[in-house]
Structures are given as structure tokens and as C-alpha cells.
Design a protein that fits this description.
The protein contains 2 helices and 4 strands. By secondary structure, it is of the alpha+beta class. Strands 2-3-1-4 form a 4-stranded antiparallel beta sheet, with helices on one face.
Amino acid sequence: MKISVELTLSPLQDDFEPKIIDFIKKLRASGLTVKENPLSTQVYGDYDEVMKLLNSEIKDAFEVIDRGLLYMKIVKSDRSDYAADF
């Protein structure tokens, strides 16, 4: 089953940018389709592969920040080819 996941990692501390960059770089290195914009990062692929990656990388990200939150939306389909028609 293919899924699309939108993530927004928000460390609630000073010096947050390097932690976000590291999180995104690890997602990119996974071999899955990863897209970024200024507000979120999207990961696309097989459910089991995406969730295995996110389980590991979210845990790692939370271990290096004092406080933080992660917004996550999951869609049951691969939306990586979506383009607005307006």
C-alpha cells in the first residue's frame, strides 16, 4: 500500500535549525521520494518502508532536542505527482 506523509518538526528551543536540517537529510538519504517546502517535508512510498523510516528518525530527532512537537498527516495514496491546476 502506498502512502504520502506530511511532516512538520518544530523543536521548541533555541538553535533549532541544525536539528531540522539533520532530520531532513536523514529522510533524503533513505532512498524514498522526499520533497520539502518552507513549511513541511513530504515522504512518499510503501507504508511499511515509510513507517519504519519515520519510527527510527522521529525517535532520533526527539532524542537530540529538549522539547518539540511533530505534526504528521498520512494519506493513503502516493500523491508525489500532485500539481495544482489553478
